[in-house]
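Lab notebook: predicted structure, single chain.

Context: the supervisor wants predicted structures on file for every construct in the current expression panel, including those that have not yet been purified. This is the next one on the list. No modifications to the sequence; it matches the entry in the shared construct table.
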Amino acid sequence: MLRITMSVSGEGATKYFDAALATSKYYGSERGQWGGKGAERLGLHGDVSRKDFIALASNKRPGTDETLTVRMKTTRKQKDLVFDEKANTWKLEDGEVSNRRAGYDFCFSVPKSVSLYLVETGDRAVEQLIHQAFKETMVDIENRMETRVRGKGDDGQVRNEERTTGNLIYASFVHTETRPIDGIPDPHYHIHAFTFNATYDPEEERWKAGEFGNIKRDAPSSSGVEILKQQGFATLDTFQKLMDSVALQDVARGKIVWIDEVGFLSTRQMRWAVDFAARNDCRLILSGDTRQHHAVDRGDAMRLMEQTGAVVHMALTKIFRQQIAALREAVYDLSAGKTESGFSKLDAFGAIHEIEENAQRLEAIANQHIAAIREGKSSLIVVPTHTECRAIAEVVRGRQKKEGFLSGEEHATKRLEKVNLTESQRRDAINYNRGHVVEFHRRAKGGFKSGERWEVGRCASGTVVVVKDGQAKILPLAQAKSFNVYTQEEVAVAVGDTLRITKNFRVGTSRFRNNELCTVTAIHRESITVGGGRVDKTFRAPS
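Prediction complete. Output recorded below exactly as produced.
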């Protein structure tokens, strides 16, 4: 994954260097290394020194007091949101903010599984592959580097265009861990490439500000739609729906906007929420745990706001739900990152049972689950993989049928499993297979409507053909924001089964919510009734 963060001042870039990029005991990072043809032109090689880094961040030629690029816009006018203590409200005021882009932090991260693998094995070959991919990507970025061309040309015509320069200056830093949270870091292998806002224009024979706009637009982003429940509005399902719906925005004006699980919000979404609240005289309340949830799109907005002190927050530090003192102490340890101590307390209490033989373990889990149901208690079985989940579900359902909790014939029906493709991956035909189901959540070119499901019929020559009711169309890959992709599988359902809803939807006047649990009360030819006859929901095999 690649995330790009802009640094808008030399002072900010310097603070970032000292706090995050330079070698520190908790990052376990190597010394920074200079990279790029621009760095070579300035005679920068090998280890990055703080002096040279600060000089470039301040738009100075390293080793001199000379200005590097010609233009140095330092401030600009901007309306800021300021809290008026006397009026006890927020208001917009004119102010000056930094206007010079010192550079961009390109952060390249490997998947979590790779970070864990490297911690366990120290595999140098894998590290070399990561560094090779990083260097090749930076070469590609450098080749696309541009600068603005303004003023009159030799022909007297006014120019307003970009020119490719093909050189940049960057300092790369390798980190193997995250920033510590409560003093405890996590394995996270990533490389920062702080790229300075300067490039050498060979035609004008001078250093100028660079242009990164196209690179930013090409940066990959996640395609997931965050499910954020808004506690203040009865008609609101998701934060995204609030952003898209003018009607919901009209309802929200002048009221309290409460965003739950705010850790899911990206920087773009958080900016929208703050701007909306300021413009519409709303009070904005944010709740959630940034250690539990992270943004799907670029930028962990709430975490950044907490770390920089941009918000005043209240934290729950005392556990009330757990009434058993021994278990409560174990949970305190686990929440503080004291994993060994927490599990030792759970073990001492007798809460941990180890069964080595697989069949005996599955039977014991089923017995516990059935016993809880008989006593009218809830039971939640948590396993780390889908394979184990299916194995346990098979044993538990077998016991449920034997004990009479499930009745009647089993009926085969289709379920959809989301293929977790990013938006950029959904734009590429190579990621589609015959039989995939494409579901649209907004209109798209080609006559596709929201709610429609089409099945992938074939993929060829960079295009994907989808079919529905005997009709074939070319999937508009460029509009990947408008749809999601699923695999389909057959599952058995019987009366008494509990189904978990994994998407918000309506059937007539009834509404189903993501993660809602429903009990099957009747099965008809083309529908399943759940929740004691509350609603009929038709599960159709995608066609």
